[in-house]
Amino acid sequence: MAKSKLIEMHNVGIVVESLDKVIPFFEEIGLTLQGRMIVEGEWAGRVTGLGNQTVEIAMMETPDGHSRLELSQFIVPKVVSDHRKAPVNSLGYLRVMFRVDNLEELVKRLISKGYVLVGEIVQYENTYKLCYIRGEEGLLVGLGQEIKS
User: Fold this and answer.
1) CB-based burial of residue 26 (10 Å sphere; 0-12 exposed, 13-18 middle, 19+ buried)?
2) What is the pLDDT of residue 49?
3) Facing residues of 70 across strands?
4) Is residue 23's pLDDT more than 90?
């Protein structure tokens, strides 16, 4: 049997309380909603290990079409843990980072909508400007702008 090889990263998943509230946040950053659907039944629970489940998902895509973010809102079973407010150095903590072309403009726009800049915008050598934003529901999102010489 031939050894399996990695082809691509398909998506990153984030569990949220409300798709209706979180989707506009990621659209503001620049992702596009591909679609929403209900995933339910015993077959789905066999994949996740949760048994019979009902989850509404929204798939969001980056402008280049290469990366996706799958947002999941669990209906059954109910969410059992909440890690959204954990500091960035927590074990197993998730954050997603996006590369943007005008970091200051985007951060200003996000702050005007009530989202919170964590720390400050910093410059890493002559390579990137970077920051973290606490978005809708307290989700941590990294933003980076490549510095072109």
Assistant:
1) buried
2) 85
3) 13, 59
4) yes
* Residue 88 CB contacts under 8 Å (≥ 6 apart), including other chains: 95, 118, 132, 140
Residue 85 lies in a domain: no
Q: Are 142 and 97 in contact, with CB atoms under 8 Å apart?
A: yes
Residue 30 tokens, joined: 């620049």
Establish if 112 belongs to a structural domain.
yes
Domain that holds residue 32: 10-78
Please list, in sequence order, all residues whose beta carbon lies within 8 angstroms of the beta carbon of residue 7, skipping any fewer than 6 positions away: none
90 three-class SS: coil
Residue 73, classed as helix, strand or coil, is: strand
For residue range 92-124, what is the model confidence (pLDDT) as tens digits?
Answer: 777 899 999 999 999 999 999 999 999 999 999
Write down the pLDDT at residue 58. 98
Query: Could you tell me if 67 and 127 lie in one domain?
Result: no
Degrees to nearest 5, angle at CA 69 with 133 and 85: 35
